[in-house]
Backbone:
């Protein structure tokens, strides 16, 4: 499945159950682990679990099995790994604490700088 199609499937599954503050982060240039992270909030631990379950169900209906699911028991932060797309569904307090949007937004300048320095050293050496 194409990354954009998978991303739409995840966002639609989250929006279907009224996820809050859904954000898509393109991290393809920053990590080889995934291409897109979708971050969303639920209103309660039950809502977080239901949102994650809906993502899993919609993925399975599309013929995809998650590579991994973490955090379903607590409902504070559930991660659904679909390979090219990873969904992070969190309670608002947990989301604020870990602030994934800021964390990943801060990385491009640092990673480009580190890559640029390495490229310059290779050219010199």
Residues:
């Amino acid at each position: 499945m194409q990354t954009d199609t998978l991303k739409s499937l995840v966002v639609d599954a989250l929006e279907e159950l009224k996820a809050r503050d859904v954000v898509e982060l393109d991290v393809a240039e920053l990590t080889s682990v995934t291409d897109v992270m979708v971050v969303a909030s639920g209103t309660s631990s039950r809502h977080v679990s239901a949102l994650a379950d809906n993502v899993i169900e919609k993925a399975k209906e599309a013929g995809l099995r998650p590579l991994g699911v973490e955090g379903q028991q607590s409902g504070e932060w559930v991660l659904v790994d679909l390979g090219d797309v990873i969904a992070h569904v969190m309670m608002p307090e947990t989301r604020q604490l870990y602030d994934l949007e800021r964390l990943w937004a801060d990385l491009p300048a640092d990673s480009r700088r580190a890559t640029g320095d390495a490229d310059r050293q290779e050219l010199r050496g």
Summary: The helical segments are 3-16, 45-61, 92-98, 100-124.
